[in-house]
Amino acid sequence: MKISPPPSKLAAKKATNITLSLDVYQAAKSLGINISQVCEQRLREEIQLRQEWQWNEEHADFLVAYNRRVEEEGLALEEWRSF
Q: Residue 48: phi, psi to the nearest 5?
């Protein structure tokens, strides 16, 4: 599962508030870190991980059944594999 690419600079944005420890905020600012940009990037990564986890949970029964079938019957068209 792939996460959608970052939105263009023209994409709609929603202002929000976050609470950070003062030392984290000051360190980020002193290093010139764009807090909004980093938060958005990390949130996209977390969203992707959770969507993958959710997909795996929703399809767990199918995956178990498919793996069992492959163990019992082998892969489809296995005789034609060249590796």
A: -60, -45
Per-residue model confidence as pLDDT tens digits over 20-75: 999 999 999 999 999 999 999 999 999 999 999 999 999 999 999 999 999 999 88
* Cβ count within 10 A of residue 72: 7
- Per-position DSSP letters for the chain, written without gaps between them: --PPPPPPTTS----------HHHHHHHHHTT--HHHHHHHHHHHHHHHHHHHHHHHHTHHHHHHHHHHHHHH--TTGGG---
What's the pTM value of the predicted model, to 2 decimals? 0.67
